[in-house]
Amino acid sequence: MLDIKLIRENPKRVEENLKKRNDPEKLKLLKAVLKNDRAYREALQKLEDLKHRKNLITKEIAKLGTTKKGVTTAKGVKAIQGIKKANEAKNISREIAELNKKQEELRQKTDSVLLRIPNLLHESVPFGKDDSDNKEVRRWGKAPDFDFTPRNHLEILKGLGMIDFERGAKVSGSGFYYLKGDAALLDIALQRFTIDFLTKKGFVLIEPPLMISRKAYEGMIDAEDFEMVTYKIEGENMYLIATSEHPMGAMFMNEVINKEELPIKLCGLSPCFRKEIGTHGKYTKGLFRVHNFNKIEQFIFCLPDQSWQLFEELQKNSEELYQSLGLHYRVVNICTGDIGNIAAKKYDIETWMADGNFREAGSNSNCTDYQARRLNIKYREKEGTPPKDFVHTLNNTAIATSRTMIAIIEQFQQKDGSVTVPKALQSYTGFERMKK
Fold first, then answer.
1. d(CA 77, CA 325)
2. Where are the beta strands (DSSP E) in 150-286?
3. Residue-level pLDDT at 229
4. CA-to-CA distance for 428 and 67, rounded, in angstroms?
5. pLDDT top residue among 128 and 81
6. How many angstroms separate the CA atoms of 367 and 404, rounded?
7. Domain check: are 136 and 182 in the same one?
8. Edge-to-edge strands of the sheet including 329-333?
9. CB–CB of 227/277 below 8 Å?
10. Section 89-106 average pLDDT
């Protein structure tokens, strides 16, 4: 979330940022935060005044020989004055208790709205209303020159007998599937290939918990997307993870990291579980938008002055992976109307598909201090010194195996229905071609 001090001191900057996102409802949130915060600070000031007044009365009571309960050893006028002061102290104590409750309610109300105000956008994010306004940055490779009518990955995998959505739906529901034979080995090969690639670059392999608490999740994910994305564990305050990014990002929740340890580079391996509610009108064929898939995620904790350089480093890593696989792709800079609340800037890698369209295979986001502030993750100069500031967090989809497999199957399909395996993967798969 954003720093409340920034909103207090420079609401115009936040307002201009929200206008770029083309979402009038977000502007209402800003007004609500300012109103609640103003009431909170007024209550806080009144509380401080009451506490000060009570301290003064307590000293006066002591001088008059009276306890705060009204018991007195004094006589005459002093006794009467002492009892009056004691009663006044009781009334102030009641006011303080009521104001403490009101102050806490206002703080929680302010924080609740703060969680829904988006991150500040980087100046290089293009203005736009939706994904049609995303700006292409570059392309790599060329589309295959087929001498036959290409088929989509689902047709190919069904023809090879390597996928079964029908039985997946029978057992688990729509959007689940059985991956079989060479296709399952291709999935595993992509995971191991990516792990080897990233660990050689200094990333530490992480196999995270597959369930996460609501508190940790709220530090990582856009509150508006929560119910559309996550599967809740019945009877528990726990959720299945939608990506290893979330448990990795929450690893250092409420901790302070020594400056010398940064940047921390992690490579997360996990299955991912997503409801995918609200996908009406989007491309959903085959493996493209499913409820359960595997992914290797890059995640970095770093100093604030490191994050933009590391953002480009993550992008380079993911592009090198796709280039090593020989896949035709393009990079797009996500516009203000499509970027979501968490990232300050976001690139997507879109791979070419057999129908001639580019579609998202992975994303790269610099979230600056937005997640770290929600999770209370800070850094310090060295052990024993006080926290200096919040860290920055970055995440990047190195490889989502389902969508990368789509690209491989559709771009390397053969006329006979088989699929050539990229050379970089052949030592992992143990075969050069997927065939019956």
1. 94
2. 163-164, 178-179, 204-206, 211-213, 231-232, 238-240, 256-258, 264-273
3. 87
4. 82
5. 128
6. 24
7. yes
8. 135-140, 329-333, 345-352, 358-366, 392-400, 292-302, 264-273, 204-206
9. yes
10. 83
Give 11-59 pLDDT, tens digit per residue.
999 999 999 988 888 899 999 999 998 988 888 888 888 888 878 877 7
Q: pLDDT tens, 347-390?
A: 999 999 999 999 999 999 999 999 999 999 999 999 999 999 99
- 122 is a domain residue: no
Report residue 82's pLDDT band, with 50, 70 and 90 as the boundaries: low
Burial call 172-183: b when 16+ CB within 10 Å, e when fewer: eeebebebeebb
Long-range CB contacts for residues 17-22, cutoff 8 Å, separation at least 24: 17/118, 17/120, 17/121, 18/117, 18/118, 20/121, 20/125, 20/127, 20/336, 21/118, 21/121, 21/336, 21/337, 21/339, 22/128, 22/129, 22/336, 22/337
For position 136, which CATH number holds? Answer: 3.30.930.10
**305 & 411 share domain:** yes
pTM for the complete prediction? 0.90
- Rounded to whole angstroms, the Cα distance separating 110 from 259 reads 31
**Which tokens sit at 95?**
């006011």
Q: How far apart are CA 89 and CA 96, in angstroms?
A: 10
Q: Same domain for 206 and 61?
A: no
Instruction: Detail the DSSP E strand segments found in 93-203.
Output: 135-140, 163-164, 178-179
- The tens digit of pLDDT for each residue in 298-327 reads 999 999 999 999 999 999 999 999 999 999
What domain range includes position 190?
Answer: 131-434
**What are the tokens at 279?**
């996908």
The answer to whether residue 78 scores a pLDDT higher than 90 is no
Please check whether residues 86 and 146 belong to one and the same domain: no
Question: Do 153 and 110 belong to one domain?
Answer: no
Q: Which residues pair with 268 in a beta bridge?
A: 206, 297
- Asked if 333 and 126 count as a contact pair (C-beta separation under 8 A), the reply is yes
- Cα three-residue angle 220-295-195, rounded to 5 degrees: 110
Length of the chain: 436
Looking at the fold, whether 17 and 105 belong to one and the same domain comes out as: yes
Q: pLDDT exceeding 90 applies to what percent of the chain? A: 75
CATH number at residue 71: 1.10.287.40
Q: Which two tokens stand for residue 73?
A: 């050893």
Residue 213 lies in a domain: yes
- Worst-scoring range by mean pLDDT, 83-92, 333-342, 417-426? 83-92
